[in-house]
Design brief:
This protein is an alpha+beta fold. It has 16 helices and twelve strands. It has helices at 2-12, 33-46, 50-59, 71-82, 87-92, 94-106, 116-133, 141-156, 168-186, 190-193, 200-210, 220-247, 249-263, 279-291, 370-387, 427-444; strands at 15-19, 26-30, 47-48, 113-115, 298-302, 306-308, 311-313, 318-321, 388-393, 401-402, 408-409, 414-420. The longest helix is centred in the middle third of the chain and has 28 residues, at 220-247. The structure holds protoporphyrin IX containing FE.
C-alpha cells in the first residue's frame, strides 16, 4: 500500500483524488513530506476523525472513543489515558510482559512450523493485554481480530453490507468480546487492585467515576478493548520483523549478541534496556515499520475548507493521509526497497528528515504508544533471537502481503523452529501463567 501510494505521489503530486469501487464519492489523498507536515500542524483545525470511527463505536455500544473524538474533548481523553502508554508504566509491568512472551515462546518446539502472523500476534497481544488490563488475553485475540476486521469492512470501508457483522461466526466473536470485558471488570474491583501496578483499565474506571457524564459507562468497553486492536498491528509488524531478522543472518547475529548480554543472567532490569543496549534490535524495528508499515494511512473528513499544497479540499469530503508513502521515496531513503537497518545510524539518520517517517502517524491522533510499541517489539525480537534459530518456509519465500483490511503477511509465510535453547528461567513464569489461565477458566465456569 505504501509503495503504491508513493508511486501515485510521484505521478500525480501531493494531492490527488481516487475513486474506490465500494465508495461512491471521490476520496482525496495527501502524500509526501510536505503533506505530512501540513497534517501535523493543521489537521486539528480542518479535519475530523469522528466520521471514520462512528460506525465502529456504535457497534460496541459506545457514544464516542479516543480515536473518534476531536478538539478539546479528544485532548482531555488523550491526557487521561497518556500515562498507561508510557515507558514508566511498561517498566512496572515488565515482569508480566516477560512472562507473557515466554509463555508463547515455550510452546514453540524444535521442528514446529508456525504461521508467522498468528505466532507473532499472540506474542504481542499477550504482553499488550498484560500492560493494559493486567490479564493475558492472547487466547481471545482471534475473535477480537475477526470482529474488528469485519467491523472495518462493513462499517468503515463499507465494502460489505452491515448485516455481514451479524453472521453466526461474528455473533460468537461478539459474545467472546463481552466475556473479555466482564473479565476485565471483575478483575478491577478496588479490593483486587490494591497494591497492584496501575493499568489502563484502572485509569478508565477512575475517569468514569470522576466524571460519568464525560465518560459514561457505555463507553468503557470500547475504550478497554481497542488497545488489543493496536496489539494486532504490533503483532503484524513483529511477523515482518522476524521475517527480516532471519532473512538477514548478519542482522540476526547482531541482535543475538545484544540478547546474550541482556538475558544471559536471567531477566534484565528495566534500566538495562537503554538505546545503546538494544541498538540493533531497535533499528530492526524502525526499518521493519518503514518498509512494511502496518498502519499505512490515516482517514479523516474535511470539516473546514482548506488548502493543501495549493489544492482546495471541499468541506465534507473524505481525506486519506498517505502517511507512509514517504518511506518509499528515494529523496528520503536512498535505495528505498533495500532493507537496511544502518539508515538510522548517527550520520545518516534518514528518518529524521522532516515528515519522512510516518509509521506511527501524524497530528493529534498520532499513535499514543510509539515508544512502548517499539520497546515491546525490540524486547520480543531479542528474546526470540536469544532462544531460537528459525528458518523461513518456504526457504526462498517472496514476501506476499494482504493489503486489506490492514497490511499483513499472508498465511503462507511460516517459520520452522531449527533450534531452541531451553527456556529455563521462564519455567516458573510458564507455570504461574498456566495457573492463571486455570483460575480464569474456573471463574468463567
Ligand atoms: C507497530 C505497532 C503500531 C503502529 C504501527 C501504530 C500506529 C498507529 C497510528 C498510525 C495511529 C494513528 C491512527 C489515525 O490517526 O487514524 C495510532 C493511533 C493509536 N495507537 Fe498505535 N500503533 C502501534 C501500536 C500501538 C500499541 C501497542 C498501542 C497500545 C498499547 C497503540 C495505541 C494507540 C492509540 C491509543 C491510538 C489512538 C490515539 C488517538 O486517537 O489519539 N498503538 N497508532
Amino acid at each position: 500500500m505504501a509503495r503504491l501510494l508513493a508511486d501515485l505521489y510521484r505521478e500525480y503530486g501531493p494531492v490527488f483524488a481516487v475513486k474506490f469501487p465500494f465508495y461512491r464519492k471521490r476520496v482525496f489523498v495527501l502524500a509526501g513530506n510536505k503533506a505530512n507536515i501540513w497534517f501535523n500542524r493543521h489537521a486539528r483545525t480542518n479535519l475530523r476523525s469522528k466520521d471514520t470511527m462512528m460506525g465502529m463505536e456504535t457497534v460496541l455500544g459506545a457514544s464516542r472513543s479516543l480515536s473518534g473524538m476531536d478538539g478539546a474533548e479528544h485532548y482531555r481523553m488523550r491526557k487521561a489515558q497518556h500515562m498507561a502508554f508510557t515507558r514508566t508504566r511498561m517498566n512496572e509491568h515488565l515482569g508480566d510482559m516477560f512472562q507473557a512472551i515466554r509463555l508463547e515462546l515455550d510452546s514453540w518446539n524444535e521442528g514446529d512450523e508456525l504461521v508467522a502472523r498468528n505466532a507473532c500476534r499472540r506474542i504481542m497481544s499477550g504482553q499488550v493485554s498484560e500492560l493494559m488490563v493486567s490479564l493475558n488475553l492472547a487466547d481471545y485475540m482471534d475473535d477480537i481480530l475477526a470482529f474488528k476486521n469485519r467491523m472495518l469492512i462493513t462499517h468503515v470501508q463499507k465494502a460489505l453490507p452491515k448485516f455481514f457483522l451479524r453472521t453466526p461466526r461474528m455473533a460468537a466473536a461478539a459474545r467472546r468480546i463481552d466475556h473479555v470485558y466482564s473479565m476485565i471488570r471483575n478483575s478491577h474491583t478496588l479490593a483486587q487492585r490494591e497494591n497492584k501496578p496501575r493499568d489502563l483499565a484502572d485509569d478508565l474506571l477512575s475517569l468514569h467515576a470522576g466524571d460519568p457524564q464525560y465518560f459514561p459507562e457505555t463507553d468503557i468497553k470500547f475504550a478497554t478493548i481497542i488497545p488489543f486492536v493496536a496489539a494486532m498491528y504490533a503483532g503484524t509488524a513483529m511477523a515482518f520483523a522476524v521475517f527480516a531478522m532471519f532473512s538477514n543472518p548478519d542482522i540476526y547475529q547482531r541482535v543475538r549478541r545484544e540478547a546474550k548480554v541482556l538475558f544471559a543472567n536471567g531477566d534484565p532490569d528495566p534500566e538495562a534496556f537503554r538505546e545503546e543496549t538494544i541498538d540493533n534490535a531497535h533499528r530492526l524495528v524502525l526499518e521493519t515499520l518503514r518498509l512494511y508499515p502496518s498502519v499505512p494511512l490515516q482517514l479523516r473528513t474535511v470539516m473546514n475548507n482548506c488548502i493543501v499544497e495549493g489544492f482546495e479540499l471541499p468541506v465534507g469530503s473524505r481525506v486519506v493521509l498517505a502517511s507512509t508513502a514517504v518511506h518509499y521515496l528515494e529523496e528520503n531513503y536512498p535505495d528505498p526497497q533495500t532493507f537496511d537497518i544502518d539508515r538510522y545510524l548517527p550520520g545518516r539518520e534518514e528518518n529524521k528528515k522532516h515528515g519522512a517517517y510516518g509509521a506511527f502517524g501524524f497530528g493529534t491522533h498520532a499513535c499514543l504508544a510509539p515508544r512502548v510499541a517499539e520497546y515491546q517489539m525490540a524486547i520480543s525480537l531479542l528474546m526470540i533471537a536469544y532462544y531460537f534459530e528459525l528458518e523461513i518456509l518456504p526457504s526462498s519465500y517472496p514476501l506476499k502481503i494482504n493489503p486489506f483490511p490492514t497490511c499483513t503477511p499472508r498465511k503462507s509465510l511460516k517459520f520452522r523452529v531449527k533450534s531452541k535453547r531451553p527456556i529455563t528461567s521462564g519455567q516458573q513464569a510458564v507455570a504461574s501463567n498456566a495457573c492463571r489461565r486455570f483460575r480464569r477458566s474456573e471463574a468463567t465456569s
